[in-house]
């Protein structure tokens, strides 16, 4: 099972993530971490989903292409009123944009800025 621990992030990514959480907290937001480190096998299984396995496509990164495999990426979801906000339209999109800006201010690259086809709102990474 993929890790949700910040201890599994690279030191440079972890430092930025801690800054990100601090900025979110100051803005009254709580971020639930849903994934940090993922093995190549786990990435392969995710990539298969929606292609050769049931479900919807959730990643465009093949094994070896995701920074989750090197602890340089983290997925988060903001919570509002104790509920995870997964939606990406209307007020939910405004919240994601706020979260994205906070992550960027902490020095992370935000997947919410990627082209529509591969856009990934929960994803933040630091290539170093
Ligand atoms: Zn991710």
Structure description:
It is globular and about 40 Å long. Strands 1, 2, 3, 4 and 5 form a five-stranded antiparallel sheet that branches. The protein is built from three helices and five strands; from the N terminus they run αβαββαββ. It is 32% helix and 16% strand. The longest helix has 16 residues, at 11-26. Strand 2 and strand 3 form a beta hairpin. It has 128 residues and is α+β, with helices and mostly antiparallel strands.
Order of helices and strands: HEHEEHEE
Helix content: 25-40%
* Overall radius of gyration: 14 Å
Structural class, judged by helices and strands? alpha+beta
How would you sum up this structure in a few lines?
The protein has 128 residues and is α+β, with helices and mostly antiparallel strands. It has a single domain, classed as Muramoyl-pentapeptide Carboxypeptidase, domain 2. 32% of the residues lie in helices and 16% in strands.
Secondary structure topology:
Elements: H1 11-26, E1 30-35, H2 40-48, E2 73-80, E3 83-84, H3 90-105, E4 109-110, E5 123-125
Antiparallel strand pairs: 1-2, 2-3, 2-5, 4-5
Helix pairs in contact: 1-3
